[in-house]
Design a protein that fits this description.
Length: 206
């Protein structure tokens, strides 16, 4: 009696279009639902694959989002690396890292596209907010809160986001001449001190 094999799930040999199908489904789902509401299961269903295959290719929903939106950084890798040396100097490390990404990518930086679109497109605004705020800065502020007991970490994260979006808009989109011409170390020092204050300083007026 011939043996009946159960159907194999996961990656099929020679199925070279599977990864792109997942990315196409992810882009559509993230654009319509946003990062938080889009699930790996829903994206896999849209692509016609098993959710385990999505995880095989991309490791996590954040990894899939980074790949789908062609972001130059993965929060799951970046945030622990920024926080690991401790709270002191965290503001400067964060600004140094982001400026290096912005300067290296220039107009190819996908965050610029989201910033440009955010004013008139709620989906773009939500995606920028969820990626920069929830995936990166909320996690940084929460880590600082755990270490030094800083209060209201979500507000601190939003304050940091206001500075980072400000750098993107002022330097890359408005191209304010003095700011665009300023050397990176000057900007790291100025913005770094401000963000450090948002992360660890008092939030009240007293």
């Amino acid at each position: 009696m011939p043996r009946t094999e159960s159907p194999r799930r996961g990656r099929r040999p020679g199925d070279s279009g599977t990864r792109e199908a997942i990315l196409d489904a992810a882009r559509a789902r993230f654009s319509s639902a946003g990062f938080r509401a889009a699930t790996v299961r829903a994206i896999a269903g849209d692509a016609g694959v098993d959710p385990a295959l999505v995880m095989h290719y991309f490791g996590s929903k954040q990894g899939l989002f980074v790949a789908a939106m062609e972001f130059p950084l993965d929060p799951a890798e970046v945030v622990p690396r920024l926080v690991a040396p401790g709270v002191d100097g965290l503001g400067e490390r964060l600004v140094r890292f982001l400026l290096s990404v912005i300067d290296e990518l220039g107009d190819a930086n996908p965050m610029l596209g989201l910033v440009r679109s955010a004013v008139g497109h709620p989906d773009a605004a939500r995606m920028m907010r969820e990626f920069l705020g929830e995936a990166i800065l909320d996690r940084v502020a929460a880590a600082v809160s755990d270490i030094v007991g800083a209060d209201r970490p979500r507000l601190r994260a939003d304050l940091c986001a206001s500075q980072i979006v400000g750098i993107l808009v002022a330097r890359q989109i408005l191209e304010l001449p003095e700011l665009a011409a300023a050397d990176r170390e000057t900007l790291i020092g100025v913005y770094g001190r401000t963000i450090q204050g948002y992360l660890t300083g008092p939030l009240d007026s007293s």
